[in-house]
Amino acid sequence: MDRELSFEEAIEELEEITNKMEKGEIPLEKSIELYEKAKKLIKFCEDKLSNVEKRIKELKKDENGNFYLKDIEEIDEESD
């Protein structure tokens, strides 16, 4: 990837690759090339999502009525 894609652009490229590969009309070498590109795009998307999850917080209220921000990871742990 020459430039930094947006998450949406990466997903769109993944969808295009999937459609091409599902049709089965491309040569084996091209399929392997597309597969490798898809792996990189998936890793890129996973990294983006992971970074976003680290930044998301939820507004909570304590027993005294005071508001505070809680990390999403802490919220997920509470629900387990």
Automatic annotation (TrEMBL):
HAMAP family: Exonuc_7_S. It holds the Pfam family Exonuc_VII_S. It is found in: Cytoplasm. InterPro entries: Exonuc_VII_S, Exonuc_VII_ssu_sf. It comes from the Bacteria. One of its GO terms (cellular component) is exodeoxyribonuclease VII complex. SUPFAM superfamilies: XseB-like (SSF116842). PANTHER family: EXODEOXYRIBONUCLEASE 7 SMALL SUBUNIT. Belongs to the XseB family. This is Exodeoxyribonuclease 7 small subunit. It is an enzyme of class 3 (hydrolase). The lineage of its organism: Bacteria, Bacteria division TA06. Its main location: cytoplasm. Residues 35-62 form a coiled coil. The keyword Coiled coil applies. The keyword DNA damage does not apply. Bidirectionally degrades single-stranded DNA into large acid-insoluble oligonucleotides, which are then degraded further into small acid-soluble oligonucleotides. GO terms for molecular function: exodeoxyribonuclease VII activity. Gene3D superfamilies: Exonuclease VII, small subunit. Heterooligomer composed of large and small subunits. One of its GO terms (biological process) is DNA catabolic process. Keywords: Coiled coil, Cytoplasm, Exonuclease, Hydrolase, Nuclease. It catalyses: Exonucleolytic cleavage in either 5'- to 3'- or 3'- to 5'-direction to yield nucleoside 5'-phosphates. Its EC number is 3.1.11.6.
